[in-house]
Each structure stands twice: as structure tokens, then as C-alpha cells.
Amino acid sequence: MEDCTAVVLAAGAATRFPGKLMANFRNKPVVKWVVEIAEKAVGRVYIVVGHNSDEVAKTAGVPAIYNPWWKWGISTSVKAAIITLINSRRLVFMLGDMPLVKPETVRKICNACETGVVVPTYRGVRGNPVAVARDVYPQALLQLQNDVGMRALFNKIPTTYVEVDDAGILIDIDTPQDIIYAQLK
Predict the structure, then answer these.
(1) What is the pLDDT confidence band of residue 181, given thresholds at 50, 70 and 90?
(2) How many domains does the chain have?
């Protein structure tokens, strides 16, 4: 799917679980799982890095976008990606700490994204990743602030919710205990 580019957001310091992106999950770093999911789903993958950028970028093994403003929250990583990939027809933003999302889920939301934003739901609960079409880029650049990503624009712009059979869209790694929980899934 050449017209959909995956962006793995991995710039934060992870204050609740320092080093979580590099933590071992099923014999690989958490962030490597996310990158591999993205590669299987769409092929073209970038990672946005900030804190610990060299190690995270090297582990990811895909082109990196350095976000010098990472301390000011996820909105700055979304903006850095949009600025760098402005010619991409669609972007799917994946969180670097969500290693259980299915590749077919990523493909499904990308395919559903013609305009606006597409958000997956599992049993009615909103999750990640989120796909955005090029028509959203100006609003994202102008309106996103601080530690809030695309959800700040949900329902303010055309938003499509797509039900998926993938509990992985709700499971992220924020604490060492989350790794144990995720191992059981």
C-alpha cells in the first residue's frame, strides 16, 4: 500500500517506565515489534525519535525523523512527521509502545481513510493506530498542542470509526507490569 505511510511515534522519555521501547517483549524490543507490524501492513515506515534517539532509531531499522521538540509532547512528533512526509497521501500514526496491533488492522484503517481521520474501535472502545488523510494535515499542524495527538481533532473534522476484531488496539506498555500482561495476550 504505497499511498499509506506508517509513522511509529517513539520520541518520548517514558517517565512511568523508562526504557520501555527497548524493553524485551517476546525476545525483541517493544518498538521493533511495532515497526515489524507496520512493515507487514503498509511497507513504507518511518519512526519519530527524540529521547534516546540513536538507540531507538538503530533498533527500529527504518528511516528516522528526529523531533527536537519531543519534550513538549506527542503533538510535536505528529507535526514533525507531517512536515517531513507532507507529500504522503495518508499517514497512519502508530504508538511505539503498542506491540499487539494486527497488521490487518493497520491495513483496514488505511484503506478506509480517504478523507479526514479513521479511528479503530474494538467492541465500541476507541484505540490506536489512527490514520489521517492529507486534507487533515493543515488542521493538525495548526491545532495540535502539548501531549495530545490526533484525538484532539476527533469529531472536529470528518472522523470515521471502524470496528476491528483486534484487542491489540487497546493494549499499550506503560509499566513493567504491562509487559507481563501483554505477554499473556
Answers:
(1) confident
(2) 1
For 137-146, the pLDDT digits (tens) are: 988 888 878 7
Residue 96, number of CB atoms within 10 A of its CB:
28
DSSP element (H, E) containing 163: strand 159-163
CB 55 within 8 A of CB 37: no
Residue 1 has pLDDT above 50, yes or no: no
Task: Report how far residue 44's alpha carbon sits from residue 148's, in angstroms, rounded to the nearest whole number.
Answer: 25
Q: How far is CA 22 from the centre of its chain?
A: 16
Domain that holds residue 116: 4-183
Q: Are 173 and 17 in contact (CB under 8 A)?
A: yes
The number of angstroms, rounded, from the C-alpha of 173 to the middle of its chain's C-alpha atoms is 13
Under 8 Å between Cβ of 48 and 10: yes
The sign of the CA dihedral 64, 3, 110, 160 is positive
Report how far residue 77's alpha carbon sits from residue 38's, in angstroms, rounded to the nearest whole number: 17
Go through the chain and tell me how many residues it has.
185
Task: Find the CATH number of the domain harbouring 41.
Answer: 3.90.550.10
pLDDT of residue 2 exceeding 70: no
SS3 8: strand
Q: Check residue 98 and give its pLDDT.
A: 97
